[in-house]
Design brief:
The chain has 4 domains: about 220 residues, no CATH class; about 190 residues, no CATH class; about 220 residues, no CATH class; about 130 residues, no CATH class. About 55% of the residues lie in helices and about 15% in strands. The protein is elongated. It is a multi-pass membrane protein.
Length: about 850
C-alpha cells in the first residue's frame, strides 16, 4: 500500500487534466440528489415539528356528515383544555347567476376559538372578529384566487350556498390547510354561527365536522387515542393527532421526493457512462506508465491500488463540488422554494441528505470505474508497449462479483433511504432495463451502419459517416446511453401529457357529464328533474340518492387488517340504494323488489376482487354514526372511466330507511349550453353545489402538471449530464478525428465534405437516440393513458419530433465543438506524428 500511495501521489502532481468529464458528471448527479434531499428533509421536518399547527390542535376528532352529540362533545371537552369546532364542506360562491359569476369553494365554518394553534394571515389584517360582517351580513374570508376570479374586494357582497355574505379579507396563509388534502376548489372561511341554521348543514348534506383540542400538559397521546377509539367505537369517529398531522401530505412528499432522488440516480447512471469512458481514456493515456510499472515488477494489485487511490481522490473532489452545488442551488433559491410551499419551512444543511447524495456518488463512481480499471491492470507490459491492447476482454471473476455486490448495495441503500421497496425496485429495474436496451440499440445501430456502407457507394460523405458509426472506435454507445435515458423520460412525460389532453378534448363532451350536482334535498329532486327536462339542450339527467359511509369491518374483522390500505377503505365512500341495478351484474343476484329482510349489499366487482371479497361475505359500513352490517349478494361491473355516476357500494332500500340523505345528479349537455343550465339552476336552487367537470379535471390536471414539471426538471439534469458525456466522448475522439481528416484530405476530400461527414455522423447518432427514446415514450404513454386511465391512446407526433430534433441537435453541437481543430491540422504533421 505504501508503494501504491507513493505512485498515486506522484501521478496526481499532473493535476486533473482529462478528468473534467468525470468531475462534471459526478457533480451534477450528486448536486441533483442533494438538492432534492435537502428540500424533502426540510418539508418532512416542518410536518413533524409543526404538527399541532398543521392539524389545528394537539388532536382532532372527526365525524362524517354529522356533528357530535351532546354526550360525545361533553366527553371530548372533559379530556381537553380547549375545544374548537370546524365544519368543512363544498359549496358555490356566487356574485350572480352566470357561469362566470360562480365558483366552487372548499368552505370552512369556524367557531370563536379558531385557530387553536398557529395564526391565520389575512389581507387586510382584520382579525377573526371580522367574520361578524357588516350591514347585517356575516363576513367571509376568500382565497386570493377566488377573489380575483370573481372580481371581489373587501366590502363586496357575495353569496355562499344561496346565503348573503360580505367579503372582509383575502386569506394569505391558513395554519391548518396542509393537512386538508386535495380540494376541488379554493378555500373560504366563514363563521359557524352564520351557517348553523341554513340548508348547508341540513340532514344528509355533505360535510365533515372536526373538533380540534389542546390537551393538558402531560397528556399521553397514545393513551388518549386508545380511550377515544374505545369511547367512539361504532360512532364513525376518525382520530388524528400532532404526531402525524398531515399523513397524506407526508406520504406524498416522501414518495415524490424518493422518486425524484431515483430520477437523480438515473442521471448518475448516465454520468457513470462518462466516468467509465473517462477512466478508460485516462488508462489509455497512462499505458506507458502502466507498462513501465509492470516491467519494474509491480503487481496488478499494486497498479490497481495506485489508480484506485487517484480515482478516489478525484471522485472525492467531484462529490464535494456536487454537494456544494446542490446546497448552493437550494439556498440560492430559498425564497422561491419557501413561497411555493404551503407551509413554512426552514432550509438547513441537513447532513442526512448530503450523506445520502455523497454515498450514491461514491457507489456509482466505483461501479463504473471498476471494469476499465480491472481490465487494463491485468494486461502484459509487452502488449502495452506494442500498442496492441484491445481493451475488450472481460474482467476476472473477483471484479464481476464485486460489481454484483456494488449493484446490490445500491439497491438496498436506495430502498432503505426511501422506505419504498416497490417504488425503488421498479424504478431501478426500469433504469437497468433501459440502459440494457439502449446498449443493445447502440450495438444494432453500429451493425446496421456497417451493413449499410455498401449502399453509400458514390456518396463519400455518407459512407465516411457510416464507417465512423460502425467502426471499432465508434461513439455510438456513449451517445445512445447518455442521451437515450434522459430523452426517454422527457418523451414519456410528453406522450402522457398529450395523450391525456387529447382524450379530454376528444372524449369529454361525448361520454362525460357537464356537471355533478350535490346537496339536492329530497324535496327538491322532483322539481329539479322537471326543470332540466324542460331544457332542450340537456340530453340526459341521472339522479340517485347518496349517503357517505366508512367501511369499518369485513366479516367481523377490522377492514384494514383484512384488506390493507386499499383506496376504498381510506376515508368515507359514497353509498346509494336502489330497487334495480344500474350496472350489469357479474355474479350473484339482486334483491327482490320491496325487500325487507336483513341488509344486503352489491359491490363493485373489480374492487371486490382487489379486497378479496366473495359472495356471502359481510361488510360493516358506518353511516352517520350507525353501523350497518350487510351480506354481499352480488357484484357489479362499475366503469368509473366514463365520468358518470358510479358507486362501489349499493345497499338495499330497507337498510337505509329513515336515514337522512341528499341526492346526487349528473347533467349531460354540450359545452355551449353549460352557462344557460347553470343560470337556471342557480336561480331556482341556490343551495345546491354544482361541480363543473371541466373545472374539476383542470384542477386535477394542474396538480399532475406540477409533478410532471418536477419530473421533467430532474430529467433535465439527466440530459445535461448526458450532454457532458457527449462532449467528453467528442473530446476523447479528437485525435481520431484529426487522423481521419488528414487521411481524407490526402485522398482529396475538401474541408466542407469532411465537416459534413462529421456533422452527419453526429446527427445520425442523435436521431437514433431520439428514436429509441420515442419507443420508450410511446410505450409509457400507452401504458398510462390506455391501461391505467382507460381511454384510447393516440401517438403524439409533435413531442416525438421535438425529442428527435433535440437529440440530433445535442450530438451535433457536441461533435462540432471538437471538429474544428482536427480540420485545421495539416495532414503531413498528423500522419508523420508517432502513434
Amino acid at each position: 500500500m505504501r508503494t501504491a500511495l507513493t505512485i498515486a501521489r506522484r501521478e496526481l502532481r499532473s493535476g486533473l487534466r482529462g478528468f473534467w468529464v468525470m468531475l462534471l458528471c459526478l457533480m451534477l448527479g450528486v448536486a441533483a440528489i442533494a438538492a432534492v434531499g435537502l428540500v424533502r428533509s426540510a418539508i418532512e421536518r416542518a410536518l413533524s415539528d409543526q404538527g399541532a399547527v398543521l392539524l389545528g390542535g394537539d388532536a382532532q376528532y372527526e365525524f362524517t356528515y354529522r356533528r357530535a352529540k351532546a354526550e360525545e362533545l361533553s366527553w371530548i371537552a372533559e379530556h381537553a383544555e380547549r375545544v374548537s369546532e370546524v365544519i368543512d364542506f363544498r359549496s358555490m360562491l356566487a356574485t350572480g347567476t352566470d357561469l362566470a359569476d360562480r365558483a366552487l369553494t372548499q368552505a370552512k365554518a369556524v367557531d370563536g376559538a379558531y385557530p387553536l394553534a398557529g395564526k391565520l394571515q389575512l389581507d387586510p389584517p382584520v382579525g377573526m372578529g371580522a367574520l361578524k360582517g357588516e350591514g347585517g351580513r356575516p363576513g367571509i374570508f376568500l382565497d386570493p384566487i377566488l377573489a380575483d376570479r370573481l372580481g371581489l374586494e373587501p366590502g363586496d357582497p357575495v353569496k355562499l350556498g344561496g346565503q348573503d355574505f360580505v367579503m372582509m379579507a383575502r386569506i394569505l396563509r391558513e395554519p391548518d390547510s396542509t393537512g386538508t388534502g386535495f380540494a376541488l376548489g379554493p378555500h373560504s372561511i366563514v363563521s359557524l354561527a352564520a351557517i348553523e341554521k341554513t340548508p348547508l348543514l341540513a340532514p344528509g348534506s355533505l360535510f365533515e365536522t372536526e373538533y380540534r383540542v389542546t390537551l393538558p400538559p402531560g397528556t399521553e397521546l397514545a393513551t388518549l387515542k386508545r380511550d377515544a377509539l374505545r369511547r367512539f367505537e361504532g360512532a364513525g369517529m376518525r382520530w388524528s393527532d400532532r404526531r402525524r398531522a398531515a399523513p397524506g401530505a407526508e406520504r406524498f412528499v416522501q414518495r415524490l421526493g424518493s422518486f425524484l432522488v431515483l430520477v437523480g440516480l438515473a442521471g448518475l447512471a448516465v454520468g457513470g457512462v462518462g466516468i467509465s469512458a473517462t477512466v478508460a481514456a485516462w488508462i489509455e493515456r497512462k499505458a506507458p506508465t502502466i507498462a513501465t510499472l509492470r516491467a519494474l515488477g509491480a503487481t496488478g494489485a499494486v497498479i490497481r491500488a495506485a489508480f484506485l487511490i487517484q480515482l478516489a481522490a478525484i471522485g472525492l473532489v467531484g462529490i464535494l463540488l456536487g454537494l456544494g452545488l446542490g446546497a448552493g442551488l437550494v439556498f440560492g433559491t430559498s425564497g422561491l422554494i419557501e413561497r411555493a410551499l404551503p407551509l413554512p419551512v426552514t432550509l438547513t444543511l441537513d447532513p442526512g441528505p448530503l450523506g445520502e447524495a455523497a454515498l450514491y456518488g461514491a457507489l456509482v463512481a466505483t461501479l463504473f470505474a471498476l471494469w476499465p480499471l480491472s481490465r487494463m491492470a491485468g494486461m502484459r507490459a509487452a502488449r502495452l508497449y506494442r500498442d496492441t491492447r484491445s481493451g475488450r476482454m472481460l474482467p476476472g471473476w473477483p471484479t464481476l462479483m464485486l460489481t454484483g455486490a456494488l449493484l446490490s448495495v445500491i439497491v438496498v441503500v436506495s430502498a432503505l433511504f426511501s422506505g419504498l421497496w416497490g417504488l425503488t425496485l421498479s424504478s431501478l429495474g426500469g433504469i437497468a432495463v433501459a440502459l440494457l436496451i439502449l446498449a443493445l440499440a447502440a450495438a444494432l445501430i453500429r451493425r446496421a451502419a456497417r451493413g449499410a456502407r455498401h449502399l453509400a457507394r458514390g456518396r463519400p460523405v455518407l459512407r465516411a459517416a457510416l464507417a465512423a458509426i460502425g467502426g471499432p472506435r465508434s461513439e455510438a454507445r456513449p451517445v445512445i446511453l447518455s442521451l437515450g435515458l434522459g430523452l426517454s423520460v422527457l418523451a414519456a412525460v410528453g406522450q402522457v401529457d398529450q395523450g391525456l389532453r387529447h382524450a379530454i378534448d376528444r372524449d369529454l363532451p361525448k361520454v362525460a357529464p357537464a356537471y355533478f350536482v350535490l346537496d339536492i334535498q329530497p324535496d327538491q329532486i322532483d322539481p329539479f328533474e322537471t326543470l332540466l327536462g324542460q331544457m332542450p339542450e340537456v340530453s340526459k339527467v341521472e339522479a340517485v340518492p347518496m349517503l357517505r359511509g366508512v367501511i369499518t369491518r369485513i366479516n367481523g374483522q377490522d377492514a384494514r387488517k383484512v384488506a390493507g390500505e386499499h383506496w376504498v377503505l381510506r376515508g368515507d365512500r359514497g353509498v346509494t340504494y336502489g330497487d334495480a341495478p344500474r350496472e350489469k351484474l357479474t355474479a350473484g343476484e339482486w334483491w327482490p323488489e320491496d325487500y325487507t329482510g336483513p341488509p344486503l349489499a352489491s359491490f363493485s366487482a373489480k374492487e371486490a376482487q382487489e379486497l378479496g371479497l366473495k359472495l356471502g361475505d359481510t361488510i360493516t359500513v358506518n353511516i352517520l354514526g350507525r353501523d350497518i352490517t350487510a351480506t354481499i349478494s352480488s357484484f357489479r361491473d362499475v366503469d368509473f372511466s366514463t365520468g358518470g355516476i358510479g358507486f362501489v357500494l349499493t345497499l338495499d332500500p330497507a337498510a337505509l330507511r329513515g336515514a337522512p340523505h341528499t341526492w346526487l345528479a349528473t347533467i349531460y349537455a354540450p359545452p355551449e349550453a353549460e352557462a344557460q343550465v347553470m343560470r337556471q339552476l342557480a336561480e331556482r336552487f341556490p343551495n345546491i353545489t354544482a361541480i363543473r367537470v371541466r373545472d374539476a379535471i383542470a384542477r386535477v390536471t394542474e396538480a399532475l402538471s406540477a409533478i410532471a414539471r418536477a419530473t421533467s426538471l430532474a430529467a433535465g439534469v439527466t440530459l445535461l449530464t448526458g450532454f457532458v458525456v457527449l462532449v467528453g466522448a467528442a473530446a476523447s475522439g479528437e485525435r481520431e478525428r484529426a487522423w481521419e481528416a488528414a487521411m481524407l484530405k490526402t485522398l482529396g476530400a475538401t474541408r466542407g465534405a469532411i465537416l459534413a461527414s462529421f456533422a452527419l455522423r453526429s446527427a445520425l447518432m442523435g436521431a437514433a437516440a431520439g428514436l429509441v427514446a420515442i419507443l420508450f415514450g410511446g410505450l409509457a404513454g400507452w401504458a398510462v393513458v390506455h391501461q391505467v386511465m382507460g381511454v384510447d391512446y393516440r401517438f403524439a407526433l409533435a413531442p416525438a419530433l421535438v425529442i428527435v430534433l433535440g437529440g440530433m441537435l445535442a450530438t451535433l453541437i457536441a461533435g462540432l465543438l471538437f471538429a474544428l481543430r482536427p480540420l485545421a491540422a495539416r495532414p503531413a504533421g498528423v500522419l508523420r506524428a508517432p502513434e
